[in-house]
């Protein structure tokens, strides 16, 4: 029987989003900058920690031998590049004590490690994940449409808000509420902020589509839902009013450093890479992926210098133009 996590990986790589909202955003070049390239500072801060770089490897996989192999490679890249690495949902390890697909920290003492668990799980499960992995923080993912389309998915959701409040009450590590590619709505951000959540990964449409993945797994005729949700840039535009109240992280369709900078201009503290990292590891050896990631750091500095922005915070003042569907969405 095929492992569900392995099916997710297979279909994630086969999907190509027909639209990426970052293509409808143009940054305005600045011809006379105030800074040298060496002045550019890529550091950022979120979830109670300082990070040297404003991008990280986001939650993807675990719970299978293939998941372990991919996580091992991702951990190599993360440690070599000084990047934060967030494992996939720890739920599989909770049901299988022999699962080693998440155990990377003891081999890599300098690894910046966090982990992830679904909000359908009780806070006790979160406590176990924290005890096992000692992560910097815990991502709590909300994946409603995925669960609805998944043949073996959840069908009860009323307890999710209670679970979230319990996590805030009982866990001492920082918490991040994360969508899984459908775009977190503003009402959810406001509600979770009232419950005590301070960091959000809005994870919009444009990258991995878990609607597509579950439709492929089930063989259903619900392909019309493959593009369900709001795009990453659209959600960032709507969430700008909250950027001074909470910490916004962006993921979903981040393909390269230009997309990263556009997300940072729209108020994100940092950006997460999932499918992009998976595709790079499928195409290149780990050593080359490490070289690409280090090159992307330099690319970020180049783009920031061309925008006359020395720091991530200054990017929020950069000028930009919106076109097409993104402009239409903003005007509504």
From TrEMBL:
Lineage: Bacteria, Bacillati, Bacillota, Bacilli, Lactobacillales
Name of the protein in its database record: Isopentenyl-diphosphate delta-isomerase
Cofactor: FMN; NADPH; Mg(2+)
Record's subcellular location: Cytoplasm
InterPro entries: Aldolase_TIM, FMN-dep_DH, IPdP_isomerase
Ranges where the FMN-dependent dehydrogenase domain occurs: 158-318
UniProt family annotation: Belongs to the IPP isomerase type 2 family.
Positions bound to Mg(2+): 147
Gene Ontology CC annotation, any one: cytoplasm
Keyword Metal-binding: yes
E.C. number: 5.3.3.2
């Amino acid at each position: 029987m095929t492992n569900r996590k392995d099916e997710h990986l297979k279909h994630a790589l086969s999907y190509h989003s027909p639209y990426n909202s970052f293509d409808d955003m143009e940054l305005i070049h600045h011809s006379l900058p105030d800074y040298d390239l060496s002045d550019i500072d890529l550091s950022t801060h979120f979830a109670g920690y300082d990070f040297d770089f404003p991008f990280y490897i986001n939650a993807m996989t675990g719970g299978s031998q293939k998941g372990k192999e991919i996580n091992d490679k991702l951990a190599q890249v993360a440690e070599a590049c000084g990047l934060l690495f967030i494992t996939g949902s720890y739920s599989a390890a909770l049901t299988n004590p022999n699962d080693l697909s998440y155990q990377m920290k003891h081999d890599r003492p300098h690894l910046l490690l966090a982990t992830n668990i679904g909000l359908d799980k009780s806070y006790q499960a979160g406590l176990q994940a924290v005890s096992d992995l000692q992560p910097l923080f815990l991502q709590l993912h909300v994946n409603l449409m995925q669960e609805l389309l998944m043949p073996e998915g959840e069908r009860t959701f009323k307890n999710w808000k209670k679970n979230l409040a319990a996590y805030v009450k009982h866990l001492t590590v920082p918490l991040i509420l994360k969508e899984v590619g459908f775009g977190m709505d503003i009402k959810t951000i406001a509600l979770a902020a009232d419950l005590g959540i301070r960091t959000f990964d809005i994870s919009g449409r444009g990258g991995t589509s878990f609607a597509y993945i579950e439709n492929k797994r089930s063989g259903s005729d619900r392909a019309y839902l493959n593009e369900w949700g709001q795009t990453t840039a659209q959600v960032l535009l709507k969430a700008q009013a909250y950027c001074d109240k909470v910490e916004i992280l962006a993921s979903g369709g981040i393909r390269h450093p230009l997309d990263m900078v556009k997300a940072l201009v729209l108020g994100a503290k940092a950006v997460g890479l999932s499918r992009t990292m998976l595709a790079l590891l499928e195409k290149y050896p780990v050593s080359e992926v490490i070289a690409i990631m280090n090159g992307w750091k330099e690319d970020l500095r180049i783009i920031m210098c061309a925008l006359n922005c020395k720091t991530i915070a200054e990017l929020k003042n950069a000028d930009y133009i919106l076109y097409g569907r993104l402009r239409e969405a903003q005007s509504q």
